Amino acid sequence: MNYRKEIEQYVPFNEQEVCNKEQFLKFIDTFDDVLTRENIFGHFTASAFVVNKERNKMLVVYHIINDGWIYPGGHVDGETDFLSVAVLEVKEETGLRVRVLNPSIFSLSSAPVKGHVKRGKYVSAHLHFDIIYLMEADDTLPLKYREDESKGVKWVTFDEATDKSMCDFIRPIHKKLIQKLQENDYL
């Protein structure tokens, strides 16, 4: 499916998502290079809200640039199949294979990225236009992480996912993901 059409068809969960959906579509309509890191204003990213079978834990990665714990994900880098990107990012960042619980978008979120140096080159502050998918993985399997991008990976309870150990900007997003999961009975 066309990624713009997929975003158009997405039914927002709350007011934040209504605003983000409008922002995402305006971004697509304004720029030609929204799928690459060449756009200095923002980039599309594909992420995964990975839960365990019991639906009481989620998977998080300690992201070096954000200096905190956040769900796995990454840049789409020209790909239009955002779901495949999200699945691959989980595998690369955690070593886990996932089961996609629903191939449709689970959530939308835009997040600021502060200016930083990556591989010796300065990257200006920008936005990540994040498409999030719902997935499941086995929380008893060993975890691996990429030392060039993160400082660790772990499972956290839903209470821990919204506490002060998470990135400031991510706590309300984690809270929203958990609330949506619980209200829509994905058990």
Which SSEs are present, and which pair or pack?
Layout: H1 3-9, H2 15-30, E1 42-51, E2 57-63, E3 68-70, E4 73-75, H3 82-94, E5 99-100, E6 107-113, E7 116-118, E8 121-123, E9 126-136, E10 150-157, H4 171-183
Parallel strand pairs: 1-9
Antiparallel strand pairs: 1-4, 2-3, 2-10, 5-9, 6-9, 7-8
Tell me about this structure:
With 187 residues, this protein is an alpha+beta fold. The chain has a single domain, classed as Alpha-Beta Complex (Nucleoside Triphosphate Pyrophosphohydrolase). Helix content is 26%, strand content 30%. The chain has helices at 3-9, 15-30, 82-94, 171-183; strands spanning 42-51, 57-63, 68-70, 73-75, 99-100, 107-113, 116-118, 121-123, 126-136, 150-157. The protein is globular, with a radius of gyration of 15 Å.
